[in-house]
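Input chain follows. Return structure tokens only.
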Amino acid sequence: MARQKSKKYTGVYSQELQNGDKSYYITYKENKKDVWRKIGLHSEGIREAYCFQKRNEITSKLRLGEELPHFALKKESQTFLDIANQFYDYKAIHNKQNKKTKSRVENRIKEHYIGSKAIKTITKADIEDLQLNIGKELMPATVNFIIDQIGSIFNWAIENEIVDKNPCKIVKKIKVDNARLRYLELDEIKKLLATIENDRSLYYFVMIGLSTGGRLQTICNIKPSDLKDNCSIRLYDFKNDSEYYGFLSIKLKSEIEKFIIDSGKNKDDYIFKNTGKQSYSNQYYYRKLQPIFDILFNPEGTESLDKVTIHTLRHTFASQLAINETPILTIKKLMNHNDINATMRYAKLSKSSGEKHVDNLIKSFMTF
């Protein structure tokens, strides 16, 4: 395939290769002659912006009569944010939800000095400083997630011979306290539903949340066509990038279908208000529900892990299933968990010691 001119950067070209990779080039004039230089491959971390930077270096040195730079694929001066950008650009090929993670991680990198530091100079102490810094406002599990992502960036840089070690490997993770898992008791559920019953959109949003355990973004992306005749409901898990199914009662399905008709929704419209790529706290249903949660369940002084939020609806779904002795593997399937350990948090809520199940087993094969 012929070289393609960059739409954004002057003098930068790319060429698609048969193996699916992409080769980058720059062109400039030297002694009134056109010069072409290959900068490197997409798989090696090369991007248009880097090529443009190199071209500017060359043209500047030509104007000043200085020695031209040596081209090496090991980019000594690239910052950690430069490499993070390249990592997520590469990852986007395989992960549709990459943009959300990229924004989440890069925003933290930009706010810390690590973002502008040359990647080769970053140490364990730098990573620990970032960990401490973001730990002041984020939950431990989120801090661990961001550090894991930074570790993945370093691993990718090692694979591409940009660095030779990963300082994240010797950084200890923050202990995550899952002892407290806030969920709504039945009387609290009734109290919440009574409070919002006059707002049908809010009411059915909460009902689906309590009936499927779907996350906020999952519920906001439900369409009328996702409701099936057998009372199942198609859901999309944006965190795990996968489709799965939940279930509604006949009565609830009928009520929601009437709500859809009354709202004038078409089969491919979203049932609920969808605010797209806005952050969690800017989502419409967060802004509507959080003040209600705070009044009903979050008195002043309530600790973060004990506060009721929209995500508490998901915990309530799983917790109430466990309390009602639903098999843990069934809960795992309904929650669309990838890891059984994520589901095992709810196992301790089961009020059964197993004697009823053992008794039923014995009765099935014992003759009197």
